[in-house]
Amino acid sequence: MAVERFPVEASHIMMFARAIGDENPVYTDPASPEAAAFGGVIAPPTFTMASSQFDPDNALRPRPGQPWFGSAKEPSGAEVVRTGRLHAEQHFEYHRPLVAGEVLTVSERDGKQWQKESKRGGTLSFEEKFFDYSNVETGELVVTARFVTVVPSQVPTQG
Amino acid sequence: MTLSAATLQIGDSRTEVVLDNISRTQIVMYAGASGDYNPLHSDEVYVTQVAGYPTVFAHGMLSMGATGKVLTDWVGDGRLTNYGVRFVNQVWPGDSLTATATVEALREEGGRHYADFTVTTVNQDGKPVVIGTATALVDP
């Protein structure tokens, strides 16, 4: 999910804030005193996830002229993007507040890999990846995201 | 408003309902804003007939995003330095999520004051859905 340019825009932040049920004016109203204190609306803590909107290879976005595995009137029959990989953990490190108006670049690094035995999922294979979100002009690191995904050797029972 | 270490004690906690009676539309809003359009979260035909789930379910990151509110409402805007969670149970339409943040430690490092929190979000049955930790920069 390397993304060359992730423009952080006020209206995108507003939509994201509404989507997580948090309409704090520091996220939604550039004219509020809360936002003015930062020189613009700031991003909620998990906003950098939305960089996938700017990922040209995002497999979870339908595109014109390409098969999409979701349904229309009926199931599409298209091959499902199914990796068996589940999102196990998500961590963020904030180096400073992220303010609307800046453009970030996202680079990806591999982390550790490890395994754990579980009664429900058999052997669980964990994989860690880091994403560094930096200001494209200054190179300053703004947010570091750490994703941990897991692939169970057997399908876990629905909990 | 920012928190001051002098007014905080280990064990202090805040609880907030962060999402009430989650609608399918709320989940669609998250898909649209985040760019995660996986049909598991919005497409009833796909999710029941192809993927084999009882119905659509919320993105884990919707629960994590909503849970952040109990932290930022307490510590103030732009004050978090770390926030991380494990996803422990799925969240379904109609669930209501209640998040609790608890002060675990207060420390000083390089002349700055930090508060460490644990955070747990449960559904309407008291079952945890996300469990995590956070750290915020606080005033002395």
Could you explain the architecture of this structure?
The complex is a heterodimer of chains A (159) and B (140). Chain A is mostly beta strands and 159 residues long. Chain A is globular, with a radius of gyration of 19 Å. Chain A has 3 helices and 5 strands. Chain A has one domain (3-58, 76-152): Thiol Ester Dehydrase, Chain A (Roll), CATH 3.10.129.10. A 5-stranded antiparallel sheet of chain A has the order 1-3-4-5-2, with no helix packed on it. In chain A, strand 4 (122-135) and strand 5 form a beta hairpin. Helix content of chain A is 11%, strand content 35%. The mean pLDDT of chain A is 92. Chain B is of the alpha+beta class and 140 residues long. Chain B has a single domain, classed as Hotdog Thioesterase (Thiol Ester Dehydrase, Chain A, Roll), CATH 3.10.129. Chain B has a 5-stranded antiparallel sheet, with helices on one face. The radius of gyration of chain B is 17 Å and the shape is elongated. The relative contact order of chain B is 0.24. The model of chain B has no long low-confidence stretch (mean pLDDT 96). The chains are: A mainly beta (159), B alpha+beta (140). Chains A and B meet through helix 1 and strand 2 of A and helix 1, helix 2, helix 3 and strand 2 of B. Strand 2 (86-94) of chain A pairs antiparallel with strand 2 (80-87) of chain B.
DSSP strand tally of chain B: 5
The CATH superfamily of chain A is known as Hotdog Thioesterase
> What is the rounded distance between the termini of chain A?
29 Å
Question: What would you call the shape of chain B?
Answer: elongated
- Classification by helices and strands of chain A: mainly beta
Largest sheet of chain A: 5 strands, antiparallel
Q: How many distinct folded domains of chain A?
A: 1
Question: pLDDT below 50 for ≥5 consecutive residues: which ranges of chain A?
Answer: none
Secondary-structure element string of chain A: EHHHEEEE
Counted by DSSP, the helix tally of chain B is 3
Largest interface (C-beta under 8 Å): A-B, 48 and 45 residues
Mean pLDDT of chain A: 92
- The CATH homologous superfamily of chain B corresponds to Hotdog Thioesterase
Question: The CATH topology of chain A, please?
Answer: Thiol Ester Dehydrase, Chain A
Mean pLDDT of chain B: 96
